[in-house]
């Protein structure tokens, strides 16, 4: 039995998860590697090969690292549970005129739960991933998530849905390091090729980044159902015809119609099959409502707390006040923010600590 304990490490075959496993192994943990197959891209009819975490080369890279360092490695097929929840939600959200964030759902409802279930079966006290974030225990005893040292790689935004039973058993070893240091560790561990390996920022089941094509291939009769709706302005005047409301997202500028000036998607109405276009200033909003909440640092929503709210992964965040309202919260920004998109995650921070997060329901002053 290792003095540090036994840990199940999610290994995608990429640099971050491989260094995570090797780092914990070097620290004295008894490591068990596991690679999860979430999606069979060929079944979707896509035009490109599988990329990222779900291709055979990645599986082999993860297994090779485990074999060379003398720890066990397993491949876990979670395609069925992944597809039933994550992909159905992805499709349903676009059909509802919203912009989903499947990586958040996958992390919180599928991957971590799948890891914990297998960790228990294998006698592992901990689970670990290669995410750039930190786990900490607050003075109130609750386990929390904080931003990584490397703010350019910080992934705390996509982890807001993790609950206490998951956080208390999670290790995130990369949080205190910068990406440059992780690349050097890969060299030091004898894997210089990992430092050169391309990183995938695509949705794993849409590796060609064509979510519109994915919807067309996976929703029977979609184009016939949504084609021919109107582009309108904010007063309801018809500007032209669009190709179907699910194929547009809030803030989109390209792929619209020529009107002699830049126009942006500001609102989507699936019931009327309309897409509203406006000026860039029409994307500004000062308030929004957030639901489907998970509180991390505190047991419940702090009332009238001043926080920094991020409305998308690459967002720097903006000062705001949150106000609990039954099973949701109202968010009032100190200054207008641009491009609030229903369906995306809103994550609340106190300095580097994640307080909690939820799913944006609507702008309250569109």
Task: Describe the model.
With 366 residues, the protein is an alpha/beta fold. The chain has helices at residues 15-26, 56-69, 79-95, 102-122, 164-167, 179-188, 192-196, 211-218, 222-226, and strands at 6-10, 30-37, 72-77, 126-128, 133-137, 143-147, 170-171, 230-232, 238-241, 264-269, 274-278, 284-295, 305-310, 318-325, 328-338, 345-350, 353-363. The strands form 4 sheets. It has a 6-stranded antiparallel barrel. Strands 3-2-1-4-7 form a 5-stranded parallel beta sheet, sandwiched between helices. Strands 9-8-11-10 form a 4-stranded mixed beta sheet, with no helix packed on it. α1 (15-26) runs parallel beside α2. The longest helix is centred in the first third of the chain and has 21 residues, at 102-122.
CATH superfamily of the largest domain: HUPs
CATH architecture of the largest domain: 3-Layer(aba) Sandwich
Kindly state the mean pLDDT as a whole number?
90
Q: Return the CATH class of the largest domain.
A: Alpha Beta
- What is the H/E order? EHEHEHHEEEHEHHHHEEEEEEEEEE
**What is the strand content?**
25-35%
Helix content: 25-40%
Q: End-to-end distance, in Å?
A: 59 Å
Q: Which structural class do you get from the secondary structure elements?
A: alpha/beta
Largest sheet: 6 strands, antiparallel, barrel
Question: Rounded to an integer, what's the Rg over CA atoms?
Answer: 22 Å
How is the topology of this model organized?
Layout: E1 6-10, H1 15-26, E2 30-37, H2 56-69, E3 72-77, H3 79-95, H4 102-122, E4 126-128, E5 133-137, E6 143-147, H5 164-167, E7 170-171, H6 179-188, H7 192-196, H8 211-218, H9 222-226, E8 230-232, E9 238-241, E10 264-269, E11 274-278, E12 284-295, E13 305-310, E14 318-325, E15 328-338, E16 345-350, E17 353-363
Helix pairs in contact: 1-2, 1-6, 3-4
């Amino acid at each position: 039995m290792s003095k540090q304990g036994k840990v199940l490490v999610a290994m995608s075959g990429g640099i971050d998860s491989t260094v995570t496993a090797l780092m914990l192994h070097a620290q004295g943990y008894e490591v068990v590697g596991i690679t999860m197959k979430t999606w069979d891209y060929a079944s979707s009819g896509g035009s490109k090969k599988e990329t990222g975490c779900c291709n055979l080369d990645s599986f082999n890279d993860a297994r090779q690292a485990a074999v060379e360092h003398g720890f066990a490695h397993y491949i876990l097929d979670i395609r069925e549970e992944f597809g039933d929840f994550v992909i159905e939600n992805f499709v349903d959200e676009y059909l509802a005129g919203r912009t989903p964030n499947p990586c958040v759902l996958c992390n919180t409802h599928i991957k971590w739960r799948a890891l914990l279930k297998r960790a228990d079966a294998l006698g592992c006290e901990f689970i670990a991933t290669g995410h750039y974030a930190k786990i900490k225990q607050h003075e109130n005893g609750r386990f929390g998530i904080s931003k990584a040292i490397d703010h350019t790689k910080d992934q705390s935004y996509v982890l807001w849905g993790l609950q206490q039973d998951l956080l208390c058993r999670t290790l995130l070893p990369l949080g205190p390091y910068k990406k440059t240091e992780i690349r050097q560790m890969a060299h030091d561990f004898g894997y210089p090729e990992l430092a050169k390996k391309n990183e995938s920022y695509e949705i794993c089941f849409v590796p060609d980044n064509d979510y519109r094509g994915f919807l067309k291939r996976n929703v029977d009769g979609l184009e016939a159902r949504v084609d021919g709706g109107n582009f309108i302005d904010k007063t309801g005047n018809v500007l032209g015809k669009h190709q179907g409301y699910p194929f547009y997202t809030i803030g989109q500028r390209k792929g619209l119609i020529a009107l002699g000036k830049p126009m942006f998607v500001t609102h989507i109405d699936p019931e009327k099959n309309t897409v509203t276009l406006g000026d860039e200033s029409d994307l500004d909003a000062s308030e929004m409502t957030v639901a489907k909440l998970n509180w991390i640092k505190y047991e419940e929503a702090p009332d009238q707390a001043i926080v920094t709210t991020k409305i998308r992964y690459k967002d720097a965040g903006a000062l705001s006040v949150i106000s609990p309202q039954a099973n949701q919260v109202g968010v009032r920004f100190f200054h207008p923010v641009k491009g609030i998109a229903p369906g995306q995650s809103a994550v609340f921070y106190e300095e580097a600590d994640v307080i909690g997060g939820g799913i944006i329901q609507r702008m309250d002053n569109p």
